[in-house]
Amino acid sequence: xxxxxxxxxxxxxxxxxxxxxxxxxxxxxxxxxxxxxxxxxxxxxxxxxxxxxxxxxxxxxxxxxxxxxxxxxxxxxxxxxxxxxxxxxxxxxxxxxxxxxxxxxxxxxxxxxxxxxxxxxxxxxxxxxxxxxxxxxxxxxxxxxxxxxxxxxxxxxxxxxxxxxxxxxxxxxxxxxxxxxxxxxxxxxxxxxxxxxxxxxxxxxxxxxxxxxxxxxxxxxxxxxxxxxxxxxxxxxxxxxxxxxxxxxxxxxxxxxxxxxxxx
Length: 264
Fold this sequence. Notes:
Elements (H helix, E strand, L loop, with lengths): L10 H31 L5 H23 L19 E3 L6 E3 L3 E3 L4 E3 L4 E3 L4 E3 L4 H27 L9 H39 L4 H6 L11 H9 L28
Antiparallel strand pairs: 1-2, 3-4, 5-6
């Protein structure tokens, strides 16, 4: 994947991604200020909990920003199509250009995307061959951060020792609504929604089926189940599993055969 920024001019998409960024910022600022840092200052919790929360938050927003600005696999008008794919080209009836099969035209973005899965308004971008791995990371780290937030909200009221430097009655009046109710509601919605989305994405990858193909029922010659190591390595562009979790890298297309070994 080439390291160039890709922006979609879509007011609805801008609104959706702004909402996601607000939820991330709300929890990233609120939870450390009211829970983590005060308890760490009074030595109720180890520093590892604080570091892990900020690390999960950093990875989550990094995956979000990269997935929303990465080129999903846009086919240019003068695109160079590999020789192996030229026998399986098809004509797009919307932009009138030849494209590889399993490419689709996005009406919101206005161009064809190689192996397009779907257009996601929450990242204001298509999910295609070149940024599918970033979208998976976003789903994963959103679940991690949401679950972490829910656990900390629970521990604040039922497990952590009371803070000696805080008036408990004043804290309940000023912060209970924001901390316990709003933060928990956000966490439950994000965790449940992203959990379902993450499951469907993994199922589609393992069966080599995109969301568009499922909806259109165009499953001819696809839908075959593959070894999970091979399927995931092709999406993430590497056989090294530790790199599957890092959004701070570039992706190169990787084709594996069934007999290739995966690195650990």
